[in-house]
């Protein structure tokens, strides 16, 4: 996979487009590229997340108890918060057609964060947004439970 293709795609992703070109280049050259065939699992709900998955091409079906089913396509970044904190995958991802992904490891990202402090503020803001979404989902679930129990 040519590095210029992956870097071009990073500029189409709202999170990765914020990073300077030299950070994007370091993410591309320091990450593992993997190919997945139709029906092949990228990862499962509850598996330990070793990093984020940046889709270079193809399409992936995402499944979660929180949101049901969604699709992800080239330039989407799956599990970006695994780059910041140790966690388990919050959903399952399965290729629906031939798919290529860069697996951006948490160790590489930590190294880049230590040299590019602007990454910390950007990712902290994204993490805050995700936590608010999850808290809203939890609150709706508790409200439903209260109504069901009476």
Q: Which secondary structure elements does this structure contain, and how are they paired or packed?
A:
Elements lengths: L2 H8 L10 H10 L1 E5 L4 E3 L7 E7 L1 E6 L3 E6 L3 E2 L13 E4 L3 E7 H10 L2 H32 L1
Antiparallel strand pairs: 1-8, 2-7, 3-6, 3-8, 4-5, 4-7
CATH class descriptor: Mainly Beta
Q: What is the strand arrangement across the widest sheet?
A: 1-8-3-6
**Beta-strand share of residues:** 25-35%
The CATH topology turns out to be: Jelly Rolls
Name the CATH superfamily classification. Answer: Jelly Rolls
Description:
The chain is α+β, with helices and mostly antiparallel strands and 150 residues long. It has a single domain (3-149), classed as Sandwich (Jelly Rolls). The chain contains four helices and eight strands, in the order H-H-E-E-E-E-E-E-E-E-H-H. It has helices at 3-10, 21-30, 106-115, 118-149; strands spanning 32-36, 41-43, 51-57, 59-64, 68-73, 77-78, 92-95, 99-105. A hairpin with a 3-residue loop joins strand 4 (59-64) and strand 5. The longest helix is centred in the last third of the chain and has 32 residues, at 118-149. The termini are far apart.
């Amino acid at each position: 996979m040519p590095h210029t293709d992956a870097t071009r795609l990073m500029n189409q992703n709202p999170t990765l487009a914020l990073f300077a070109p030299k950070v994007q280049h370091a993410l591309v050259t320091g990450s593992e590229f993997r190919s997945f065939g139709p029906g092949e699992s990228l990862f499962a709900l509850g598996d330990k997340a070793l990093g984020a998955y940046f889709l270079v091409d193809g399409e992936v079906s995402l499944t979660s108890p929180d949101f049901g089913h969604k699709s992800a396509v080239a330039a989407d970044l799956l599990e970006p918060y695994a780059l910041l904190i140790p966690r388990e995958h919050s959903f399952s991802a399965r290729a629906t057609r031939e798919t290529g992904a860069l697996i951006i490891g948490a160790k590489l990202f930590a190294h880049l964060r230590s040299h590019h402090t602007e990454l910390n503020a950007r990712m902290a803001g994204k993490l805050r947004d995700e936590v608010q979404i999850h808290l809203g989902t939890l609150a709706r679930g508790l409200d439903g439970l209260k109504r069901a129990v009476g």
